[in-house]
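Teaching assistant here, posting this on the class forum so everyone can see the example we discussed in section. The complex has two components, and the goal was to see what a joint structure prediction looks like when all of them are supplied at once.
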Amino acid sequence: MDFFKRHFFVALSAVLGLIIIAYVGVQGNLQLLFGVVVPYLAALIFVEGLIYRVIQWARSPVPFRIPTTGGQGRTLPWIKRDLGEKLDNPADTPHLIGRMALEVFAFRSLFRNLRTELVKDPDNPEGARLIHWSYKWLWIGAIAFHYAFLVVILRHLRFFTEPTMGFVLMLDHVDGFFQFFTPAVYLSGVVLVAAVGYLLFRRITNPAVRYISLAADYFPLLLILGIGLTGILMRYFFKTDIVAVKELAIGLATLHPKLPANLSALFYVHLFLVCVLFAYFPFSKLMHAPGVFMSPTRNLTCNNRWVMHVNPWNYPVKFHSYAEYEDKFRDAMIEAGIPVEKEQ
Amino acid sequence: MAKTPTPAELLPGLSYKPPEKGWMDVKPDFRPGTYCNPASPKWMDWISYPYAQPRSIPDDNWGLPQDWKEIVLQGMEDRLERFRSLKVFFDICVRCGACADKCHFFLGTGDPKNMPVLRAELLRSVYRRYFKTIGRALGEIAGARDLTEDVIKEWFFYLYQCTICRRCSLFCPYGIDMAEMTLLGRELLASVGLNIDWAMASVAQCYDKGSHIGAPPQAFKDMIDFLAEENERITGITTPVSYNRKGAEVLFVMPSGDYFADPGTFTMMGYLLLFEHIGLDYTLSTYAAEGGNFGWFISHEMGKRLNAKIYAEAKRLGVKWILGGECGHMWRVCNQYMSTWWGPVDFLEKPVSPITGTRFENAAVHKMVHISEFTADLIHHGKLNLDPQRNAHIKLTFHDSCNTARGMGILEEPRYIINNVLPEGNFVEMPPNTIREKAFCCGSSSGINANENMELRMQGGFPRANAVRFVADKYGVNHLGCICALDRATLPTLLQYWVPEVEVTGITELVGNALIFPDEMERTTDLRDRDLVGFGEAEEAGEEEE
């Protein structure tokens, strides 16, 4: 099997395997394990793992201030910089916060994305030329995916509190605005599955991206696709007892877990996949979420020339001193009329 | 030396389709013309670099030390502990591929391992294998692989097909910077004796003598005195230069490319004319005779060992502040590292232009002003007497140097100068996706502008040249301006290959052309002895319309 197939099918088998484990487990009356133990375990691994990993990163210092500058720097006062340039080359903390906010909330760098292609051009002596154009599809896919996922997660908060928080109800209302089906179809769920589908499709069909993709790239996409599809199945096709789900969720959240009797196997599969996602998070590329906050090319102010950056492990180095230099070239320097420190 | 294929031979073979085989199973093809020669032991001895011995790339045995594997892995561990950047960049890549078609080497060679994401994976796969539990346990399926001699060879091949230009890091949604990984990867290679000759020779010469060409002090003085005489011959203005003069107000540091080879020398002539025009109290140093920092192409430490000379000399001479010439990586180093390495710099003063009184607040700590800032400030205050018509024969486009564009953000100053020294309409920009922060690299920076890898250099520079070709065809551009000495060293070769009708020029050269002195000779040529348009008796009315 070639590299792509190996990595793709390992990821696919892993997700299918997880589904089977949960299904078989529930058939074998392991509800307590999948409904209580695994969720707590996953939450624990997620929180501890996340903190551990971030501390691991933070233990290494940032020896040099190396922001990538994306616009005119702050130099002479009369050189005008528009807001975009001030954010892409932040000279102070407010603009740095702005840069990070744009990066985190709007995926600013990805928004810059271009596509470059080599096209035939008989007018060129070499017969071809490069063309570059703005290419927003990846950005759209990424934004759609992340925001849909966020809305889905927030929507699920309604299972955890009684009464349901006001903003969650509002979100629910807006999200279910399109009432062409009963129950009302959540836009976020549809967008989530569509966006994950696009990202997966792109990963498989774009030859360059397929070439670099590892099992660790397919696995989270397939896992999230599984979560989304089981969720949709539960909501629209194989109705789940919402009251029972809420009972379980509130029990878990208040540390008084109760196991309602009438939860379907489909629900347990859904829950298990979610737990795996949480537990997997800290040890995977999904750490790009906290990581972007710690990226030294983005989270540092571009003020090297007027605020000194300190390197905690800065150490003296051996260099060729002027005295050594003059000793070597003194005669020639005197002859050439170049001033010296010592005449002989 | 390998024969370099012509442009028409090169392009038809270019495809961005990856091979069938997975990348872990593909070995690099060390074809002559695509790699740099390993460093001669002589240079490595000069700067006490380890495991110096003659090496040859086509040989199977690269003469690695016995415990090379331990050295490399220990080196990787050390760097993970010292550079958060490395740890974070190793861990958070999602392989989205946004960086892939941003790299000029990928666009020029079509080799998938030149996609920054995959170039990084060459290192990351080893990191996963030895530093990550999942990589240790699952191996290839977790994207991990053993560190073998073949992997080292692959690193050598591809880490020297990266010019540390950071175009990928601009587009990366997490700011992952291949330049940082390339630098640290090259440090690992150097730790087992693998360096490239062109960079190493330059480093050794800079270290020992003062500049990458290895000119001793008297030769340095001769070269610059000669350029001053050239100024006098062409303009009638004497531009006397002082060397190692204590008590000067300003120490001027320029890249050595500006005084030893065309077309950099014309930029040097421009500097001298400019300083004479404003009566600047400055001196040059034969000791800090190289602004360009070739050491940084090899390791952070070597960068520091070379950079040391600038502040040391400024202190010894007792100048007030430092003025830096047109150089890309010199400025990236001075911006990103210099004050961290040596600061605080109390022996210098906050730079103030003696001509305009402008306080360079943006250089308050590292006390070094960029020549383009300095010149733009002079023009803004009306201190330069300029005749743009003397540049009427020049139809210019401007190449933003990667280091000043993405490493500090000097974009407007050179453009402001250009617009003031060129007649209106003589400056056109290349397509917007190829300039400013999105500029394409010259393709030969970071120590790889050797001769033996010419095919690779022409491939790497193809995206840049292609944008030049566009404005040359569309607007009749005949000059490519830049504020980088490596550009002035590499772009003429590149353009000769892809767009032979375009020449390369520094921006201060254009300033030198345009400066009017009260007691100058009648000017009929530019600094390159080319006839001016509309000046002198040779000019006839009929020709002007061309």
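For the discussion questions: Chain A touches chain B through 107 residues (CB under 8 Å). The beta strands of chain A are 114-120, 128-134. Think about how each of these relates to the inputs above.
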